[in-house]
Amino acid sequence: MGFLNNLLRGPAAIAMKGAEPETGALPTVGDAMPEAISWPTEEDFAGYVNGMYCREYAVRVVVDFITRQLASLPLKVYRKNADGDAEEIRDGALARLVKRPSELPGMSRYRFYASLIRDMLLEDRWLCTLGSNRSGGGNTLRRIPADGYSLTANGFGELTGVTISSVDGNKGGTYKLPDPRIVLDIGYIDGLNLGDPVTNVLRSLLSEARAMAKYRRKVAENSPQTPAYIYRPKEMQWESQEDYDDFVQALRNYQQGGGREGAWLPLRDGMEVRAIGELFKPVDMADLDAREKINEQVCLAFQISPENIGFRSGTNSNISAYKEKLWNVELLPYLVAFEEALNLTLPEAVGEPDCYIKANLDAKLRGTMETQYQALHRHRPAVYDHRRGARTARPAETAGRRPADNPAQRERGRPAQPAGRRPDPERATRREPERQADARRIQTPLHV
Fold first, then answer.
1. N or C: which end of the chain has fewer CB within 10 A?
2. Rounded to an integer, what distance in angstroms lies between the CA atom of residue 58 and that of residue 46?
3. What is the largest CA-CA distance in the chain?
4. Which spans in 33-159 are helix H?
5. Residue pair 77/52 in contact by the 8 Å Cβ criterion
6. Contacts (Cβ under 8 Å, ≥6 apart) of 114
7. Residues 96, 90 contacting (CB under 8 angstroms)
8. Quick check: helix, strand or coil at residue 447?
9. Alpha helices in 302-420 (DSSP H)
10. pLDDT in tens, the chain (448 residues)
């Protein structure tokens, strides 16, 4: 909405105002036509945060990586019991709200949390409102885009209120903070800035990347397909003006498509094709290397290793060490900020102040599927607990019983024989005929 307002108040308003004819004067054919609406250029569009996300490759990749990792984490609700231990709450107002925060069409739990996390990464703030669902028996959350509200603060940088705009018949309003209906999170605050996204410090780097990309496109469009020129001795005279015109026309035809089609220009006597030599080469700009360096700087600005994104080569031979660094060093601060923002308002607002929300980080740190299988089946088989929605180890008493020990063998200090295994003398007696037959075969000479 803010982008559209700026557009309509700027070039569009000037164009519409210039298009209005003056009173008493009819336009003629010779009158100048009003200028069309001047849409933002690439540079202007990149000034908006949503434009930076939509058109800047590195920003899009890094933001999507962080968003997908955090939004895919399951959020659970816990309550401290009398012993001080945390027990999971599966049926409650807060648990139902966390499981399905929005009832809008196509807005799943993953998509809703991803939109809030994306707002925090791009705008350094996010806001949603708490209200009743359609049935009236629960609560629902509604995300407000960054350009759909405005925050107010005092001279100490303390938030005092929020004004939500009216859109499509939905009445907005001004709310005095704190308010249980307003759930928000905001990063950097001072007297003038209410949220300072990290994308602001990337504008100069990204503008440099756009300039190099534009240069590379121009070079690809206008550079010669063959890095050579035609040499003609000055003492050789043209036979006639017609001969000169024919050669010039042939050269123009060759420039239009001959180099791309593999043809070659017919040369006159004495002409030579010489290489350009050590003149300026586009590769000397090293724009591709600079692009990779800029991508790495974007990753570092969001506190993410470029190796995890794929912008820099690296090996992840140790999966556990990779996950440990990714979640405990790089993504954990984002996750803690998101959890605390939800716990600051939601539990008390839905009437469960003794509950709290916590992300199930074990879902990402439990290792590969192979290690999970080995851990669950090492001692006893695993079953799928449909109530918990996870694989659990079967109790020992139901996993099968070991045969009872033989008291006589236990007294002699020998372990009990497993069920179905014959004693050693009996097995030796049964194998004696087999050994005698093998001995006879070895002693029998071979006949050619």
1. C
2. 13
3. 130
4. 42-46, 49-55, 57-71, 93-99, 109-123
5. no
6. 67, 68, 71
7. no
8. coil
9. 306-309, 319-325, 332-349, 362-365, 369-377, 407-411
10. 455 555 444 444 444 444 444 444 444 433 444 444 444 555 555 445 567 888 888 999 999 999 999 999 999 999 988 888 889 999 999 999 999 999 999 999 999 999 999 999 999 999 999 998 888 788 999 999 988 999 999 888 889 999 999 887 778 889 999 999 999 999 988 767 788 888 888 888 888 888 888 887 877 776 666 667 778 888 888 888 888 888 888 777 776 655 555 556 677 777 888 777 666 666 666 777 888 888 999 999 999 999 888 888 876 667 777 788 888 889 999 999 999 999 999 999 999 999 999 999 887 776 556 665 565 555 444 444 544 445 544 444 444 444 444 554 444 455 555 555 555 566 556 666 766 666 555 454 444 3
* Tokens 């709290």, residue located: 356
Buried b or exposed e, range 112-138, using 16+ CB within 10 angstroms:
bbbbbbbbbbbbbbbbbbbeeeeeeee
Structure tokens at 55: 């058109």
- Listed residue (121, 122, 114) closest to 143, CA to CA: 114
Check: CB of residue 298 under 8 Å from CB of residue 205.
yes
Q: Is 403 helix (H, G, I), strand (E, B) or coil?
A: coil
Give the amino acid at 171. Answer: K
65 with 304: CB under 8 angstroms?
yes
Query: Which of helix, strand or coil describes residue 397?
Result: coil
For the chain, what is the total number of helices (H) and then of strands (E)? 18, 13
| Two tokens, residue 247 | 């050669």
Residue 218 tokens read as 């121009």
Eight-class DSSP state of 166: P
> Is it true that the peptide bond before 395 is cis, omega within 30 degrees of 0?
no
**Residues ≥6 apart with Cβ < 8 Å to 62:** 298, 299, 302, 304, 309
| Structure-token pair, residue 177 | 């903070």
